[in-house]
Each structure stands twice: as structure tokens, then as C-alpha cells.
Write a structure and sequence with these properties.
Layout (H helix, E strand, L loop, with lengths): L2 E9 L4 H16 L4 E8 L6 E8 L2 H8 L2 H13 E9 L3
Antiparallel strand pairs: 1-3, 1-4, 2-3
């Protein structure tokens, strides 16, 4: 059964553009990954520095592979510098 993922990230004050650039750079390599059905990034119209990803993966193990990919590990190394807070939802469509 496919896995749905929603991730919301809020930039630290003054880091909005830097976070936007880093997150945008994740799109192309992620879409090329095995098991990625879709991977879309959204930028809030109402709240500067608020971003949301909507994703669907063929299986949870393939999403786990994504979470261990070089580009996600590189992002994780910068997360404390750029992200004030984030939330993650994983589940299945009902």
C-alpha cells in the first residue's frame, strides 16, 4: 500500500530564503528516486518561511531509503541552522 507523507517546516527568523533554496534543491533528486510517486513542495502565501511537502511513495521501505539518501542527509546536517520547527505525518489513504 502506498505511503502518504506530509511534512511542514518553519524557517528560523532571517533564514526564510536560505531554507527555501535548500528545500527546493531536494525536489529534482527526490523525484528521481525509486518509489517516488509524487513529491511536491508548497510555499505559504500567508506565512513567510512556512513550507509544506506532500509526498506519496510506493512503500514505506522506499521512503525509508529516501530518508537515508545523500541529499536528505545533507539537509539534515543544516536543519538546526535553518528550521525553527517541523511536523511530519505518515500514513495511508483511506
Amino acid at each position: 500500500m502506498p505511503l502518504t507523507v506530509n511534512a511542514t517546516l518553519k524557517a528560523k527568523d532571517g533564514k526564510e530564503e536560505a531554507l527555501f533554496a535548500v528545500l527546493k534543491a531536494l525536489i529534482a533528486p527526490t523525484r528521481a528516486e525509486k518509489g517516488c510517486i509524487f513529491y511536491d513542495m508548497h510555499k505559504s502565501d500567508d506565512e513567510p518561511g512556512l513550507f509544506m511537502f506532500t509526498e506519496e511513495w510506493e512503500t514505506r521501505p522506499l521512503w525509508d531509503d529516501h530518508m537515508n539518501s545523500p541529499h536528505l542527509k545533507a539537509f539534515s546536517a543544516r536543519q538546526d541552522e535553518l528550521v525553527a520547527n517541523w511536523t511530519l505525518f505518515t500514513g495511508q489513504r483511506v
